[in-house]
Amino acid sequence: MIKNFRAMTLNDVVLDWFCLINTRGVGLKTFWALLSTYETASEALKHVENPFSKLEAEKRLKRMDCEVILANDKIFPKSLKRSKFCPPMLFCKGDKNVLFRRMLAIIGARNASINGQKIARNLAHNLADKFAIVSGLAKGIDTNAHIGSLDGKQSAVAIVPFGFDNIYPKENQKLFGEIAEKGLVLSEVPYGKAVDQGMFQARNRIISLISEGMIVIEAAYKSGTIATATMALDFGCEVMVVPGTPTDPRNLGSNSLIKNGSNLIQNHFDVLEIMNTAEEMQGISNQKELLSQGDEPEPGNKKDELLALLSDTPISLDELALYLHLDVCKLTCLVSELEIAGNICRNSNNKIILNQS
């Protein structure tokens, strides 16, 4: 457990902590060891070689258009302090009061199917009244979870692996701004690109620690989603899974979570029951099916992007046309080409499914 260390003025504390964690050779383990030994970052800086320049630290902190939350601030998520990898500071844009809400993560495949995206958006929309909805601003499931939660008051929380000067993926720049305005964006780093896999793993670790519950939608074996869900289980987080057809590789990992004991959910009422909020369910929509809310996201119009949206679950041409922003006649031509190539087929109701044979 991280101590509550003796505080100076907030500006001094932020500057000294920033210098200490940015000193060459000082990682998270060393940072906390130094702070435990010397009680303040200011004193610890006297005992390290070539400490990071305070002038440079002040320059960078002033240039950053965001707020800083230190690990000894009352608003800092207590759940993060359970890990030896607890970040000394979090950089944020938006309303920090969101951190006082119960946190529920929704994560899954970047190349999510249309149905997976709809489910993520609908669950986030229906649960945003009771929870702050956490995700990682990635494509697919993350994006739709954020969009669904933006309808709720102070409900959207994005944990990102990069600095606020480098939005990733680029197509989510507008979404990033909306979350910063209506919810909260958190990062362990203040600036710069996510240049290595470790930064994504650090992002996923924060999602796992900060969340009281986690919903998994479409996760392949050995995927980042499964790694995040596994961490969440280790941290005592309640993991819930939307089941999927076993012939779609995007569901193999998530279905295995169910097989190994994670909760199977079919709608937001299941989530509320598992998260012990059943007594509050009466005020929520009676819609029990996982249907979409609001406008649909805009995937590309290439054949491979169309194929990525399909699964064993039948989809109508009209629904595909809406997703792809294509005229039905143009879409029909594209579908015919894919049928001839054997990539897709139609069922008896003239709906489109992915050909798994």
CATH class label of the largest domain = Alpha Beta
CATH fold-level label of the largest domain: Rossmann fold
Biggest β-sheet, characterized?
Answer: 9 strands, mixed
Instruction: Specify the number of helices.
Output: 14
Over the alpha carbons, how many angstroms does the gyration radius reach?
A: 22 Å
Number of strands: 11
How are the strands ordered across the major sheet?
Answer: 1-2-6-5-4-3-7-8-9
SSE pattern, N- to C-terminal: HHHHEEEHEHEHEHEHEHEHHHHEE
Description:
Helices cover about 40% and strands about 15% of the residues. It has about 350 residues and is α/β, with parallel strands linked by helices. The protein has 3 domains: about 10-75, no CATH class; about 95-285, Rossmann fold (3-Layer(aba) Sandwich), CATH 3.40.50.450; about 305-355, Arc Repressor Mutant, subunit A (Orthogonal Bundle). The strands form 2 sheets. Strands 1-2-6-5-4-3-7-8-9 form a 9-stranded mixed sheet, sandwiched between helices. Helix 1 (about 10-20) packs across helix 4.
Task: Summarize the entry for a quick read.
The protein is α/β, with parallel strands linked by helices and 357 residues long. The protein has 14 helices and eleven strands.
Mind sketching the topology for me?
Blueprint: H1 10-21, H2 28-38, H3 41-44, H4 54-63, E1 67-70, E2 89-94, E3 103-108, H5 114-127, E4 132-135, H6 141-149, E5 156-160, H7 173-182, E6 184-187, H8 197-210, E7 213-217, H9 224-234, E8 238-242, H10 252-259, E9 263-264, H11 268-274, H12 303-309, H13 317-324, H14 328-340, E10 344-346, E11 352-354
Parallel strand pairs: 3-4, 3-7, 4-5, 5-6, 7-8, 8-9
Antiparallel strand pairs: 1-2, 2-6, 10-11
